[in-house]
Amino acid sequence: MADQDGDAGKLFGLCVFTFVQSKELSENLIQELSQNATKYGAEVSQTKRDGSLPLAVATHIISNTIDFPQYNEATSMMIPVIKSSWIQACLVKNRQVQIRPHSPDPRMIFSDVVLSCADIPDCDKESIIGATMALGGTESNNLTKLVTHICALSMDHPKCQMAQAKSLRCKIVLPHWFDDCFKLGKRIDDAPYLLPNPEILREHPGGNIPIPSSQHLQGATSARPDYIPTPVDTETETRPKLTVFEGKKVMLSCDLSISARLKNIVKELISDGGGELTDRVDDCSWFVCHYRDGDDYIRAAHAGKPIGNLSWLYHLITQNAWTTPTQRLLHYPIPRNGIPGFKGLKIAVSNYGGEARIYLENLITASGATYTKTMKADNTHLITARSNSEKCDAARDWNIAMANHLWVEESYARCEIQNLTVSKYTHFPQRTNLGEVIGQTMFDVDKLEALYYPGGKPRKPSSASKRKRKTLDLAEEDVDDNTPADAASRHARKDFDVMQDDDPDIVDPSVEESGGPRPTKRRATSFATPAREQRHVRIGKENETPSTVSSSSRSAKDKARSRLSGLVDDIALYEKEKKRVLKTGDPWGGKRAADQIEKKHLNRRSVSSPAPASDDHDDEIASVTKRPAKRGKPALKEIETKVILTGFKRWVNDKHKEDADRRKLREMGISVVADGNKCDYLVAPQLVRTVKFLRNLSRGATVLSSSWIETCLDTGEVPDPNDYLLKDKENEQKLGLRLQTSVARAAKNKGGLLRGLPIYCTASIKNGPESYKVIAEANGAQFLVYGPRSGSTIKPTNPDEDPDGPDPVYLLSTANPDEKKLWRKFEEMARQGNMEPRVVASDWLLDVVMRQELSFDKKYLVTNFFDGAS
């Protein structure tokens, strides 16, 4: 990692990062990455007040997903969208690495694959490497720790033997896995292809395979859901506050056919989240409808507004996070008459289960075909996840076309029926149920716009149009507003704008630059309408005057001519300056330019206005040219104390008070920093087991009572912090510790309490593994998430080398039935690595970190901690 000051400023020296917060990229991680990026020379640009990204200044967008509103606009501006892992990779290698392998685009199916080929023939090797790199992967000729997959035909190659001997975490797969992924265009599970004993060579192709669950179908199985799946906080059993509708206006189309009661519920949810319903398309931020037709739909589409259906709206309510409606097929309004080519088809489904089956039923119906539950001879198609089932055998006997779900999905996404001769639609990998990749297909937006947006795709102001508008507006500001002639010139200029700009919705540059909530439309005035209607091209002599020209047209010409004559001096000055710059190479600008322009304006005013008495005139010039001195801002006091607050209740639901108090503290030399930064004091009302508290306690921060901050704010003075050390005997007795002892131990441990200790965590644990990861890694532990498909990640050791007995390895878990299934597998993995497995409740980690003393008690074992666990 780059750690020298000289190199630090060069790594990201010309980069301007902006971050997109999501479930995959938390706020705490953004703060850590921002600090590292700033340290190594980058500039971090914050989002605007309306939540939009500052695309005008950003050079890199850091996002772990492409599901954010401005993704298409960012790609059209050629701003790279990359995952947060790119920053970490750059810091490790002390140089900017390739961007492509770190793309969040799901179509780059091998974006996190580092491939190294073993005993593969040269022709096949080149094809595999080329296709992998085209889909976001990278290739390494040598076997390094970064290699994730070795492509081999057997375990006899030295690379495979070395990987096995050193217990590297890379997977050794047959080339068949790459071949199947290339054919499908999707990344399937590599478990059946793993050497030394691959399942595709060991098991019968027609054997039973568990039907997988798909994570891509959540909230997107139906275009018209029957109910609102209102989210509930599991801890408080109340509905959390929605923030996704903050400042948004939502329009519900009349074709949704929802009851008045349901509409009132939706209105209440949106209002509680800071939004509102509207009946006007021009005023709405988001448009919700069921079908892709109607005047309102077309108007919203041409205005570039996000358009989704009721299922999409419910998904926003459930997830409380933005998602693009074209990201999932059944989140966008359906075609009223289906997809061309599907009418009259009878389609059955096989080998799909659960939500995948419901999703396919609704997708087939939305396409215009008829879904049948049973397979009959009059069926035209069978959609199956595997080529083995009774329905598949019947389809072969009855000569019925058989395809996988990709045929239906891509036909719907491209708004036309796809040819079944394409190999990807009839490819069925052995020992794989294609239900694991269902729901990943996104809309072809260009096809959607071409077919359903009359007049073409939504038109947005080009950069050239915006620059032209900005130039004309600046020219208008340069003219004195007092004279009638200039007022007429401004009207002529607006008329000129309407005549020249073909875009009906012109973005006002002043609004756009200030980060306003939405573009402002400029409508043609009644004065400008005749000029637009009578605009035409004549053929003939240039100086011939047509007899049909109206007086308004002649007036517009005279005003435009008058306007141009007023700019003659400016044009001459520009040409003169251009020659001077070409001759001397010395550009002109800054204060010198401002002073000369100001004098020029004064001369214009003195000529156009009646001349006053000489003395008064001199006084007037002096009053204009002599600007009042700017009052300098008082210098802020140097930061003397950095604090982190947790559990502080003074600012709850009062953002304005929080901002004012933060400024007041800053004036006293106290800076409230975000979690993850270094701090002098950790401030809390009592002992709490929050992530902030445990993380900063592990760093040895002195813990103060929140009354210290209250005193600072109330008195305007900073009292001695030692008089406000946190004392909470009740919770100390409850947790069996003394806080000051824990602080002293933390200062001694220096974040290394759990250094080198492996701690695993189940993926479905309450509150999620991310919070426990932050706490564990703050104390030096090796934290890993353990799931059903997790392989062996413990390096086996010789028992004779451990005279003190096997070291412990922990798995944080609950008594959830799905997590219980992992216990035996985890214990076997630990014992094979000569380690002692301990499946414990998460409270073990929290209590150990709170006491800052590594200990273990059998009461933390899940079989003892949770009643009924076995």
Can you offer a commentary on this structure?
Residues 7-104, 105-195, 342-414, 643-726, 810-862 form the BRCT domain. By secondary structure, the protein is α/β, with parallel strands linked by helices. Among the domains are: 5-102, Rossmann fold (3-Layer(aba) Sandwich); 114-202, BRCT domain (Rossmann fold, 3-Layer(aba) Sandwich); 241-323, Rossmann fold; 346-452, 3-Layer(aba) Sandwich (Rossmann fold); 641-749, Rossmann fold (3-Layer(aba) Sandwich); 758-865, Rossmann fold (3-Layer(aba) Sandwich). The protein has 32 helices and 24 strands. Strands 2-1-3-4 form a 4-stranded parallel sheet. A 4-stranded parallel sheet has the order 6-5-7-8. α29 links the parallel β21 (758-762) and β22 (782-786). It is globular and about 85 Å long.
Task: Name some characteristics of this structure.
four-stranded parallel beta sheet; Rossmann fold; alpha/beta; 24 strands; disordered N terminus; 870 residues; 32 helices
Topology:
Elements (H helix, E strand, L loop, with lengths): L4 H7 L4 E4 L7 H13 L3 E2 L15 E3 L8 H6 L4 E2 L2 H9 L20 E4 L4 H13 L3 E2 L9 E3 L6 H8 L5 E3 L1 H10 L14 H4 L46 E4 L7 H13 L3 E2 L8 E3 L6 H8 L4 E2 L1 H10 L26 E5 L4 H13 L2 E2 L9 E4 L5 H8 L3 E3 L1 H9 L31 H8 L10 H15 L6 H17 L8 H5 L15 H5 L17 H16 L1 H17 L5 H19 L5 H12 L15 E5 L9 H13 L2 E3 L8 E4 L6 H7 L4 E4 L1 H9 L13 H7 L3 H11 L8 E5 L6 H10 L3 E5 L20 E6 L4 H16 L2 E6 L1 H10 L10 H4 L5
Parallel strand pairs: 1-2, 1-3, 3-4, 5-6, 5-7, 7-8, 9-10, 9-11, 11-12, 13-14, 13-15, 15-16, 17-18, 17-19, 19-20, 21-22, 21-23, 23-24
